[in-house]
Amino acid sequence: MKILPIGYVKACRRCKRMESDLTKPELSPVPIWRCKDNDCKAWIREELATSLTPECPLCKSSMLKSIRHLPKLVKKNSRKKK
Ligand SMILES: [Zn+2]
Q1: Ligand 1 centroid, distance to 31 Cα (angstroms)
Q2: By CB count within 10 A, which of 16, 39, 43, 71 is most buried?
Q3: pLDDT tens across 38-66, in order?
């Protein structure tokens, strides 16, 4: 994963709206699964899905792949690698 310098993220059209609003966290597009039922708000990060075709934890419907703009996760480097 490339680490881009702050300011580079502005390439995203949606994030561009955030430029003038510095109080909001920086958002980046994240692949997610969302419930195909529009009335159901369940969704999970793709990276947290336990299966390739996850089912909704709430209503057990199938889920659709989507993109969501979320605050960036700060990942700590694992130091346990040997
Ligand atoms: Zn659901």
Answers
A1: 17
A2: 43
A3: 999 999 999 999 888 999 999 999 999 99
